[in-house]
Amino acid sequence: MTLLLAIVHAGLAAAWVGGMAYSLFVVQPKLEKYFGPNRDGREALTTVIASGNRWKVVGLIAAIAVSGLGLLLIDHQHWWIHALKGFLLLCATGIFWYVSWRHWPGRVFATSSELPVLQRRLIVLATTMLGLAGLAFALGVAAVHL
Predict the structure, then answer these.
(1) What pTM was computed for the model?
(2) Can you tell me the distance from the alpha carbon of 134 to that of 37, in angstroms, rounded to the nearest whole number?
(3) What is the dihedral of CA 112, 117, 123, 127, to 10 degrees?
């Protein structure tokens, strides 16, 4: 049971980290290259790609949190790593909340002159979120070797 839960937990975390990395390092640069100076076209496709994903990610985060809590309840010997991973997940979730419910609505209604600042801000926020989730994932891997 513990092994299955650990596989589910790690798989979900890997999916989230991998999805963010793919978006940041593959999709976003290709959109910029493809659309070039056509910021409105790039923004339109970015909005289409992003739409409908909010609740999928919320579910993914919840599943990561619940499976992590389950692992803590099974083996609480290194509880401090679980606590640190939980804190990092909470911080990444806070950024996700801001991006989903504040940044994107503002971006959808932004003027063309406001978009460059908002696009750069999203890259910073997404990179930070990826760093937090990636660090939590790395701590989970390291915890196995304690």
Answers:
(1) 0.89
(2) 32
(3) -160
